Please model this.
Amino acid sequence: MNKKLMIAAALVAVAGVAAGLAPEMKKWQKGKGWGWVWGAQDEIGSLNEMTDASRLAALRLAKQGKVYDLGVLYDRNTYKWPGHSPGEIIAFRTPEGVKRQQDIPGVIQDNPTKTAWHSCALFINDNVATQIDGLGHATEGEDDPWYNGFKEKDWGGNWGPRKCDASTIPSVIARGVLIDVAGAKGVDALPPNTAITPADLEEALKKQGTTLEPGDVVLIRTGTLRHWGETGADHATIGRHDSAGITLESAKWLVAEHGAMLVGSDTSGLEYNPAPEDNKAYREKYKSFMPVHNYLLIEQGVHIGEFHNLEELAREKAYEFCYVACTNKIKGATAGFTLRPIAIR
Amino acid sequence: MNKKLMIAAALVAVAGVAAGLAPEMKKWQKGKGWGWVWGAQDEIGSLNEMTDASRLAALRLAKQGKVYDLGVLYDRNTYKWPGHSPGEIIAFRTPEGVKRQQDIPGVIQDNPTKTAWHSCALFINDNVATQIDGLGHATEGEDDPWYNGFKEKDWGGNWGPRKCDASTIPSVIARGVLIDVAGAKGVDALPPNTAITPADLEEALKKQGTTLEPGDVVLIRTGTLRHWGETGADHATIGRHDSAGITLESAKWLVAEHGAMLVGSDTSGLEYNPAPEDNKAYREKYKSFMPVHNYLLIEQGVHIGEFHNLEELAREKAYEFCYVACTNKIKGATAGFTLRPIAIR
Amino acid sequence: MNKKLMIAAALVAVAGVAAGLAPEMKKWQKGKGWGWVWGAQDEIGSLNEMTDASRLAALRLAKQGKVYDLGVLYDRNTYKWPGHSPGEIIAFRTPEGVKRQQDIPGVIQDNPTKTAWHSCALFINDNVATQIDGLGHATEGEDDPWYNGFKEKDWGGNWGPRKCDASTIPSVIARGVLIDVAGAKGVDALPPNTAITPADLEEALKKQGTTLEPGDVVLIRTGTLRHWGETGADHATIGRHDSAGITLESAKWLVAEHGAMLVGSDTSGLEYNPAPEDNKAYREKYKSFMPVHNYLLIEQGVHIGEFHNLEELAREKAYEFCYVACTNKIKGATAGFTLRPIAIR
Amino acid sequence: MNKKLMIAAALVAVAGVAAGLAPEMKKWQKGKGWGWVWGAQDEIGSLNEMTDASRLAALRLAKQGKVYDLGVLYDRNTYKWPGHSPGEIIAFRTPEGVKRQQDIPGVIQDNPTKTAWHSCALFINDNVATQIDGLGHATEGEDDPWYNGFKEKDWGGNWGPRKCDASTIPSVIARGVLIDVAGAKGVDALPPNTAITPADLEEALKKQGTTLEPGDVVLIRTGTLRHWGETGADHATIGRHDSAGITLESAKWLVAEHGAMLVGSDTSGLEYNPAPEDNKAYREKYKSFMPVHNYLLIEQGVHIGEFHNLEELAREKAYEFCYVACTNKIKGATAGFTLRPIAIR
Model:
């Protein structure tokens, strides 16, 4: 491409974004969202909406080159949902250990520079720290089907689901929008068991002056991660705020009405968790113990972002940005985990 | 920012890149490279060169929004250096298992929708699949110091090095350059134990018509990953080609002469491994069994990229691009692993 | 018990064993063996035959107090069936690491003696080194039932089978008999893919002058473990001999005709594995790829001993002894593993 | 050996025990104990005292053949010292998973009997459930030496200590003695932070009518394990009683005065742990945070038994018995763990 053409192309893209034109959507329908519309073998869901043009438009949202790191740091003490397996990062080889163990004589002998190395072995769960849930994470129904009707008896296995594992999640480059609910309510972090309703989202968007567009990555801030500290060791405090989240109605409002292509938050599970005294009524109303997961992952094919650190974005009132997230490529993993998504401005 | 200003800023950035202006470097010196120039507490090395402006310039290299996935897919069968620990991705919770095990009665009872989930537990090494080596990976000398003089007795530990672990690697957004050595030599993949010299690099760059700039991420293609298949299960074939790599002279040429800020390739270790019959002479000449690692990581503070899949870039002759890599945030890990770096055009 | 009574009791026991009287059996029937005869909830199988009297009689076989260690030493390099997960024993805490990591200040501070400790974290499979297979190890049929008809849909789970896991194996104290087939055939170790027939067992017993009794632990020597070395690192040699083993006919002869209460050998799987060229015919004849496992574990409720080191017993022609094995108490494990059974003479 | 000789030999052994004669000791000295008396390469310590004769005498203590299982059952919820790594027992292969995964076509095809199997992968610490500490577990001093002066810089490594790992612990067959301190004090379990003194031990022995002999395995009951339940899940209650234990003075009394060859209890660490308010004085007096471990393991070469379930022995007032314990054979492990020692009467 010569210089003139290049500048022209850039101008077109910049102008398009500046004019507020949403990239055209392939399958999304207002009032309905997506559903299983991408073909019987699809494992990607709403992220199929991404195109070169949509990515380029998102990249052009970066005007300064400033990067916000949305990942939280993980170690053995990190808060996680108690139903997941624990974790250890263990020094597997150390400079002293390599030399003492003498198990690789060809390497250690004739070693006048005394060269050695560190490496670690990890035991880790695939649902820890900053995550993007794969579409095979949640199942619902008699034969345990997940997104697109893949069933356990057909596509289960000993090494993770064999359809819609997290390695199928394409690199996400899209317009990102922060909805700072905690900020709009004037609190550091939402109180425990706060149910975030569509009205709450609308109110926050209005205060921010932000407009949602189909194809957005929408990140909702509860303020929980202001208590993360270095590695999420204060389980009691994090656990309290971690119960705030969106209701099923909000999930529908975001996806069916506004075309959110990925929905995330700064909690471990995105969705509202009722207080013990409200649990019975909640279960009776929503049937599932995680209706938002079921709706987004299974019914809509919309990935969920969890434990995204939105504190710096909120401090700087950075409500619109280019969101980039690249999931680790591990076959069978049910979520991208210990991720470092970024927001670029 | 209003629309006019925004367009103007974009134009400036676009024009700067179009004019071939390299971003100004902070500490790099031609002929010397970097070294320990960033302060006694620095854990980041040459990546300190990144600025908002350099990132914005790199992002502006994307003209189409096309993404190349440079990560390789990992599973239990994946080829790795035999000195690392093995790996398993194991279904920890499954829909059937959760219901049979009955260990979380509050979740499974009152579950008319029969909701359940998948999660996995992983045992995994932090030096597998697509990696970026942290500056604490290699050590050299009596007290086992690594980059910036951090010593094992001060900064070692049971859970990985406590300085320069991979979680300190900032998100990398920079101009990326592919040097397709295999392509320039007209082979699918370089023969085993091929030593890639500065002359080889120069020849390939010349054939490509590509110019290096200080601050580049330089990725060197041996063609090894054309044998990766789905998950790197053909150890014999991969292992043979995996021994091709750059010499110490090439590493110096890239960093000290050309300012490469991160150097990577499509092999497990970037550097040339001699054939058994050449090993003795090699050791006598270079002293260390991994002189390129020692030079880049320890002496220069330049991170190393490994097992980057460059096949699609090579097929499309995509020699210049925006490189984006975000390392998993795991405290103590010695490398980013199972990564999905991307090239954007 | 006063001294006279004690001596009298000992004399009775000694005399009984000396006279070759077998302990009375509860459920075993010649020609049939056991089967599912111990009640619908039973998880123990033929080991239910043990009584105080049978144990005392076995203990009285010890005349010298000499102990033979039947366990093999396990480490990361140890030979195992390739379908099992790999293993690592990793230093989790080390004296230096504890002090450097400074994660337990209350312990390390005020520590004038500089006290510290070692501990290890293990990733390990429950079917490695010297084993006793639990009755839930093998399944056969449409609903994947195992011993006593326990089915996967009822008694499976995410953390091992919930019936007949190896923690249900009682401490085994019984008369042990070595059948040294390799010795009888005058070879160091049986050739690969040797099928040990009832005639082979009879011949060896005759040469030894040993008689089987109902309730015996029968250990069959192929000689494979003479190639174990320190930790079973020579996979090629071990793997070759490891394919020798008993046929289904021999398993039936041992259990149904002779009342063997536990059958073991010095290989990883006890049973004969056909050479590739014989595999098709073998499968057609026996239907299962492991008919001996199915017969012993599922049909008869007879536990299987694997990788029992019989070399010293063979050298000393110690054909009869008191066998003692105590399985590790890990809920959900499918086999006792890395065991150290002993023979006492 | 003919029948007459056999009976005669048995009589001699029985008579010796009946007469209360202690087996002759090789190196033990009253008032001193052992120390590093077994040679510079020794890794076994006081267990070197065992001989065929001592084992035979111990076996002859079994008069009925009744077995007491001293192991506690372990699972993911089991109480352990918080400084150890967590554990999971995970279904690695399941009948359904094997068939769905289709990763071993040669096994699963041509499988008319639908044979399959269960196996588990474990992540586990080597200091959990019923244990015998190896002599390399504790270190004390500048160069982190352990028993017999083995130092970390010489005998450390990445995969556990390379001297005195738990695989070196010989099968223990010895006279076992229960000292039921909780019983003697008339309590179900000793109150938290109870310091068991020599006077307490003497009082309990006197009440029981039990006499210690050199070479004994001495097991001291606090009653903590009456709160174990199925798998030690009630951490709060276990943790409280777990702080009861013997003082350094008691350890010396047992070893130096009475020749205890192995000292164990029903707690996680055998020794007294002071209440927080007494901690400062305790540290000032004893210097080490675990003086009993240092004395027994390092100075005396006496192994420590932990979490031995003594409840049934106490209920039956079974104060003297044959103790048998066979440690798992894992190279580098620092303790035998998840063991099932037995007492035979």
